[in-house]
Amino acid sequence: MSTRIGRALGLALCLSLPALAAGEVELSATTDAGEVALDGTLLLRISATYSSRGEDGELKLPTFADFEVTGEPSRAEQMSFTFANGSPSFRRTVTTSIALTPRRTGDLTIEAVKLVARGKTLQTPPIHVRVVPAGQVRGGRSSPDPFDRPADVDPFADVHPGQRDLILRATVDNEHPFVGQQITYSLYLLARANVSSIEKLQLPRLDGFWSEDVEAPQQLVPEQRILDGVPYTAYLLRRRALFALRPGKASIEAAEVQVLTGFGMLFSRGTSRRSSQALRLDVQPLPPGKPPGFDSGNVGQWALTATAEPLAIAVGQPVTFRLVASGKGNVRDLHLPALGALPGVRAYDPTTTDKESIERGQVNGTRTVEQLLVPERTGSVEIPALTMEIFDPYQKQYRTLHTSPIAVQVLAGQSGAVASVPVAQNLLGGGGLRPIRLRMASVQRATPPWSEPWFWPALALPPVGVALALGLAGVRRALRVDPGDRRVRLARSAAEKRLRGARALLQRGESVAFYAEIARAVTGYLADKQGVAAAGLTREELAAALAAKGHGEETVRRLVRILDDCDRARFAPGSSDAPVRETMLGRAEQVINELDRGRA
Amino acid sequence: MTPLLALALAAADPSGLQLFADANAAYLSGDVSRAVASWEALVSEGIAAPELETNLGAGYLRQGKRGLAALHFERALFLDGGDDDARADLTELRRGNVDRLEGEAEEGGAETAARLLRPLPGFAASIALAVLWGAAWVLLALRVFRRGPRWCSLAAAACFAGALLSALVTWGAAAGRRMALQRAVVVAQSVPAREGPGDKSVSRFEIHEGTTVRVEDEEPGFRRVQLANGLTGWVPAASVELVVPPGWAGRPVAAISPRAAR
């Protein structure tokens, strides 16, 4: 029977859907409960999501060894065409629902469902269901999926229509969500009158929320409801998934709809305008205790996996590292961990791809970060484990997701490659800690010489020694004096000393002694300075000797006259008076000056 | 553990080569703590060798102690300015430093000058200076006082020229050494630099382990440090360690190093 059902479903899928071009396919299977009574039923939902046009393929249902299939499988299809990240995105989801009745109690398994499509075989994991004896199932249907809206939540429980024929009703499934947690906003039209069509629907602005369409029916699908004992027909107009962006009080304004009521073209045709009530939400902040590195967008139920392909490669060839986060939540706000720099590996900028799908009113998503890694060294390269901190709003706790480290073996490139093919190279870049040194070649602890106390005195010693030697030589030279030179040097001062003595004698009135001293001053100067001994020479010889030394004739003549005058005054005393002697003193000084100048 | 190792070292092998080899073996087998303790024992014994300091730096880096690792790499470079391993490891370590200096590259200015001057052969140059200087004066004296031959004058001039060259090299080496004596490394993980030498002074900025600073002044419990870009502040003395420790290269033991005191 199951095989027949599978064939029927495959045929139905092939017949009812347009032919689509090749593309990616995702397959998932869920049940509406994790526990069921033996006399109860279980609903198995199989969702095949096609992200591009193409054949649907063949759905292979399992044998259902532990269950019986109740009734005919139903099939629903949803198509969406959205712009994501600036590019169009097409998604089509075909959902097959099968009601199952368990055959026995215990832990039963629904086998894997397979889908062969576009050259691939997809398979869902087996689903484990606990079956309890009849009548012992716990209160209500316990769903394993915390995202499921509880079955007992009636959006119209608090609606009291009174006498109104048309009511526009807005509801949310959770008035106290966490930041980043999905809430579902639904807009229903409740009618007692006949509704022909919706002419205009004005949805409220959803400031403060990230929103995503969940259901946007193109046709009015009636659903019968009893409100305060009055039968109403409920029409779902729109269902959107909302993700609150910040904590605090939030409001969703009223929606408006314009409804055409009546039958056909003639009977009681009319247009009515209705507004919904505004909604108030209390968005809760994420609880304290955020782990380090937690990003506020990582809210939801996520799984993180990392793969690298291939795991053995020649150096210089690329390895594709793929980090995938998939689960339930707002994938667009998800922040995945980055792969750090790997020594010996050149990493290119990663590319990020997001996929979204709607499953049972829940926004699911997959974010894939692909990064091209090019090993530049041979050997083993380990791509380290990555961690991502998330907040699970249903468990109300933070969780850390881990990937496993991946080892990639990098082999040397083959030699002898064709010249046009890029040769793989073992690129040995610098960096990294160097190996330790195994030998101590030198042991040093020296104080530099210039810091030693002997250094600067040692430098000063040679110049000081030379200076001392020079000084001693100077002293020695000063002590060794020639008497002749001394006499010549002191001749003038000796003559002046005698002239001063003569002046003293003049003042005392000792005439003879005065002239004798004048004569001694002149002859002494001649002997000392000029080297002429006047005492042993005649006046003529004296004059000739002085002339020979270059003195002027007039100077020599005045000198001779002075000597003659002195002799005369000494040997004929009283022949001169005081003014004459005074004049003699001046004449002697003048002559000595002239001789001194002439000598010079 | 370190004093025990030091005692063992003194009793068994004065040169410490065996302990050095044992420490290396421990490091290579992954027992980094034991290797570091053994190398520290050698240091406490007074052995100063660039290889020992480089290995200590590597050990501390493996332990995640970036400040102490930088300190020992700096010491290795002080002992041997041409130690390529220590320089490469220090460069690698600095890439991961928390502190990034704005306004001047860390390898610029005084740092570059110190790097250029440090390899100068100051020891040999100072000996050459003393010898050439003395010889020049002796030759000059011979020429002047003893009427020595003409070559005495030429030789004296050559000696004076050589002495001048040696003096320049010695001056450069001394300048580099003076800068090295002021160098210190932040060993605390993070430390506030304050406006004055007191815990209640305003904190102007923070510096982190591994950053090299220049110690400009000291007060009890505090050191005034300057970064390569001129930022200056007072930090607790225990948070920075001098590259040239007391007792090394003529630095007096009285210069207090918290780690040496411990």
Order the strands across the largest sheet of chain B as they lie in space.
6-5-4-1-7
Class inferred from helices and paired strands of chain A: alpha+beta
Question: H/E series of chain B, N to C?
Answer: HHHHHHHHHEEEEEEEH
Weakly predicted, low-confidence segments of chain A: 1-23, 138-152, 415-421
Question: How would you state the average pLDDT of chain B, rounded?
Answer: 82
Task: Quickly give the structural class of chain B.
Answer: alpha+beta
Number of strands of chain B: 7
Find the count of extended strands of chain A (DSSP E, 2+ residues): 30
Strand content of chain B: 5-15%
Question: Can you put this structure into words, describing what you see?
Answer:
The complex is a heterodimer of chains A (600) and B (262). With 600 residues, chain A is an alpha+beta fold. Chain A has seven helices and 30 strands. Chain A has helices at 2-16, 455-479, 483-508, 511-530, 539-548, 553-571, 578-599; strands spanning 25-31, 35-37, 42-50, 58-60, 67-84, 87-102, 106-110, 114-117, 120-123, 127-132, 166-172, 182-191, 195-202, 209-215, 222-227, 230-244, 248-252, 256-263, 267-275, 279-283, 300-309, 312-314, 319-329, 345-347, 351-359, 362-375, 379-383, 387-392, 397-402, 406-411. In chain B, 55% of the residues lie in helices and 14% in strands. Chain B is built from ten helices and seven strands. The longest helix of chain B is centred in the middle third of the chain and has 33 residues, at 150-182. The radius of gyration of chain B is 23 Å and the shape is globular. Chain A binds chain B through residues 430-434, 436-451, 455, 458-459, 461-463, 465-466, 469-470, 473, and chain B through 16-17, 20-21, 24, 27-28, 46-52, 54-55, 58-59, 61-62, 79-80, 85, 88-89, 92, 122-123, 126-127, 129-130, 133-134, 136-138, 140-141, 144-145, 170, 173-174, 177, 248-250.
